[in-house]
C-alpha cells in the first residue's frame, strides 16, 4: 500500500530490511520479490539504470523458480524505467508481454498489489503506444483497461485505467475527450486517496486545459502537480510535469517563468537520462525562442532540430509531427 500512497522513503526502508533478511536466509524467491519492488522504488525516484538492473534480476529469479506472480510483477516493473528513459519501444515490449499473459481469471488477480496488474500493464502500454503514435492499438488496450477496471471499481485500479485512456486522448489531440477522462481520473485520485497517481492526473488534466485555452483552470493544477511531485520526491515523470507548466506559462504570456522552467526541465531530463522528456523540453525551448525576440530564431531552430532528431530516434511520431509544424513556422 505504500506505493499507492507515494510513501517512497518508507517503502525503501522496508525493502532494504527485507533484502538483508532474504540474503541472510539465501532465499532467492523472497530476494526476487524484494528486487521487483526495489526496481519500482528506483524508477519512481529517478534511478532508472539501477531500476532496470534490479527488475532484470527479479525476472531472472522468477523464470528460474517458475513463480508466475513474480514474473508478472517483475515484467511490469521492468517496463517502467524503460518508459522513463524514453525507450518506449522496450517499455511497450514488456507491458505487451503482460497483456498477452494476463487473460481469463488472471485479469482480476492482484498478485499482492493494491490493484490489478492486468489494468496497470494495459494503461502503461496505451501511454507508451501513444508516444509512438500507435493510436489504434493504444485505444484497444485503453478500452480493455477501462472495462476491467469498471468491473471492480477499485480506486487504485480505476485511476490507472482512466489516466492511461486520458493521456492517449491527449496525445491524439482530442482535448475534449482527454479532459472528460482526466477529470474523472483526478476525482478518483482525490476521493480514493490515490496519492501516487494524483500528480500525474493533475499535470495531464492541466496540460489538456492549457492546450484547450482554459488557462485559468490549467495553471493551479499544473503548479500543484509540480509541488506534489517535489514533496513526494517522485522523479519518474517530473521533468515532463515541469515542461507542462512551462508551456502553460508560455501560453499565458509569462515568458520569463516559462523560460526558466523550460531550462529546468531540460537539465532535469538530461540529469535523469529521460530522453523522451528531454525531447519535449527541447521542443518547448524552440517554441519559446520562436515566440520571443527575433534574434532568438537561430536558437529556436537549433532546439527544434535537436528535439526532432531525438524524437525520431525514439520513435515519437506525434512529437515529430508537432515539431515539424513548429520548425516550418520558424523557417517562414
**DSSP strand count:** 0
CATH architecture field of the largest domain: Alpha Horseshoe
Number of helices: 16
CATH topology of the largest domain: Serine Threonine Protein Phosphatase 5, Tetratricopeptide repeat
Beta content: under 5%
In terms of structural class, how would the helical and strand content be classed? mainly alpha
Give Rg in angstroms. 20 Å
Q: If you had to describe this structure to a student in words, what would you say it looks like?
A:
This protein is mostly helical and 332 residues long. It folds into 3 domains: 1-84, no CATH class; 86-222, Serine Threonine Protein Phosphatase 5, Tetratricopeptide repeat, CATH 1.25.40.10; 237-332, Tetratricopeptide repeat domain (Serine Threonine Protein Phosphatase 5, Tetratricopeptide repeat, Alpha Horseshoe), CATH 1.25.40.10. It contains 16 helices and no strands. The longest helix is centred in the N-terminal third of the chain and has 18 residues, at 8-25. The model is unreliable at 324-332 (pLDDT under 50).
Amino acid at each position: 500500500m505504500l506505493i499507492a500512497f507515494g510513501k517512497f522513503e518508507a517503502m525503501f526502508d522496508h525493502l532494504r530490511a527485507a533484502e538483508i533478511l532474504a540474503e541472510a536466509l539465501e532465499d532467492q524467491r523472497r530476494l526476487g520479490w524484494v528486487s521487483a519492488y526495489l526496481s519500482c522504488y528506483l524508477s519512481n525516484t529517478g534511478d532508472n539504470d539501477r531500476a532496470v538492473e534490479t527488475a532484470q534480476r527479479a525476472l531472472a529469479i522468477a523464470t528460474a523458480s517458475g513463480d508466475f506472480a513474480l514474473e508478472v510483477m517483475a515484467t511490469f516493473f521492468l517496463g517502467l524505467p524503460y518508459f522513463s528513459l524514453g525507450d518506449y519501444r522496450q517499455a511497450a515490449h514488456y507491458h505487451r508481454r503482460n497483456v498477452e499473459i494476463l487473460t481469463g481469471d488472471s485479469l482480476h488477480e492482484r498478485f499482492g498489489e493494491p490493484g490489478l496488474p492486468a489494468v496497470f500493464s494495459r494503461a502503461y502500454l496505451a501511454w507508451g503506444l501513444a508516444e509512438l503514435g500507435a493510436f489504434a492499438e493504444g485505444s484497444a488496450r485503453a478500452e480493455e483497461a477501462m472495462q476491467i477496471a469498471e468491473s471492480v471499481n477499485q480506486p487504485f485500479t480505476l485511476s490507472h485505467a482512466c489516466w492511461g485512456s486520458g493521456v492517449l486522448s491527449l496525445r491524439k489531440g482530442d482535448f475534449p475527450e482527454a479532459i472528460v477522462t482526466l477529470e474523472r481520473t483526478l476525482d478518483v485520485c482525490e476521493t480514493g486517496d490515490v496519492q501516487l497517481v494524483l500528480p500525474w492526473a493533475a499535470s495531464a488534466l492541466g496540460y489538456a486545459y492549457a492546450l484547450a485555452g482554459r488557462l485559468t483552470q490549467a495553471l493551479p493544477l499544473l503548479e500543484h502537480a509540480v509541488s506534489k511531485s517535489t514533496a513526494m520526491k517522485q522523479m519518474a515523470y517530473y521533468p515532463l510535469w515541469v515542461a507542462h507548466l512551462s508551456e502553460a506559462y508560455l501560453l499565458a504570456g509569462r515568458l520569463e517563468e516559462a523560460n526558466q522552467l523550460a531550462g529546468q526541465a531540460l537539465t532535469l531530463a538530461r540529469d535523469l537520462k529521460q530522453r523522451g522528456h528531454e525531447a519535449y523540453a527541447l521542443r518547448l525551448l524552440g517554441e519559446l525562442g520562436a515566440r520571443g525576440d527575433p534574434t532568438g530564431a537561430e536558437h529556436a531552430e537549433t532546439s527544434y532540430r535537436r528535439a526532432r532528431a531525438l524524437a525520431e530516434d525514439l520513435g515519437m511520431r506525434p512529437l515529430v509531427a508537432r515539431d515539424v509544424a513548429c520548425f516550418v513556422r520558424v523557417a517562414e
